[in-house]
From TrEMBL:
This is Uncharacterized protein.
Length: 81
């Protein structure tokens, strides 16, 4: 299971909402974090989130069994490790 943690602050919510658009992604709460998980890769389109670059590049709080293989101005892609 690939998992990404994002702090629950208003600036990060668009990242969580966009990630949740995928039918394979599950969103849970763990303390003050959203846990975004999927059985396979997770891909989040930055432009669809509307996040500015500073928020985009600071949104990841942690990973479980995942490696970030793309994190640029276009998208974030996490692969199972």
């Amino acid at each position: 299971m690939t998992a990404l943690f994002v702090l629950d602050v208003p600036e990060n919510r668009p990242v969580v909402v966009q990630a949740g658009q995928s039918p394979t992604v599950t969103i849970d709460r763990v303390g003050p974090y959203f846990k975004i998980s999927a059985p396979g890769p997770i891909v989040i389109d930055r432009r669809a989130t509307g996040c500015r670059h500073a928020v985009w590049y600071s949104s990841v709080a942690g990973l479980i069994d995942a490696a970030i293989t793309q994190w640029d101005k276009d998208a974030m892609r996490l692969e199972p490790r």
